[in-house]
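User: ABC transporter permease. Structure?
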Amino acid sequence: MNSVKRLLIEWFPAILMFIGVLVIWQLAVSTLGIREYLLPSPGSVVDAMLSSEIPWGKHILVTGTAILGAFLIAAVGGILLGTLTAWSNMVGRALMPFLVFVNTLPKVAVAPLFLLWFGYGIFPNMLIGALIGFFPVVINTAVGLSQIDDEMLDLGRVFNAPKWKVFAKIRIPNAYPYILSALKVTATAAVVGAIVGEFVASQSGLGYVIITSQSSLNTPLAFGALVWISILGLALYGAVAALSRVLAPWAEGQEN
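Assistant: Predicted structure:
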């Protein structure tokens, strides 16, 4: 009961903010007489989201799979590359400029190339999302593994601990808050990347729904797809936040 009460108190400002935005939105549409194709009312958006004419389940599954795949690729790849750069200074000096170069590439311009190389489907969208989201994980992992108190490292030397054991027992636990913080950023970046891929070329998914709704000026449908995208992003972000509370509760306490 106490945990439920604590969650309600914690989330009350955010809930109040959402309610306030919806009220202002509804009042603006009603009082100003804004046409639906420009700005639909919240009720019209909800109706579109629940419409049986649109196979929402299929589109949500396609986009959700692309987002989750992009997140996992970025997380695993970013942690591995970050660990390599922290393990060896020589590898870090060789790898980091290339990673910075890749990160500066315009992702929208790269998306057609991925489609050309890997064909149409979910996998190219995963790669685009991973490309957008992996760099923060690399940087934060490398920083978390490198910024260790000298006293902790001296303790390892006293016990003649091998390098891999120092990594496993000291460096990796120290990097948890850094990595988990980066994964929160990557959770939102994966959503952006997956939708960018669907915008470029797709036959299904929430991005595809937005593109097709533009041709018919069905703005409520586009807004409905956007809300579903936000729900998927919030769910992934919430999962990472929950993992943070388990793996690094001390860091969560500091953030709060």
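The first helix runs from residue 2 to 32. The mean pLDDT is 82.
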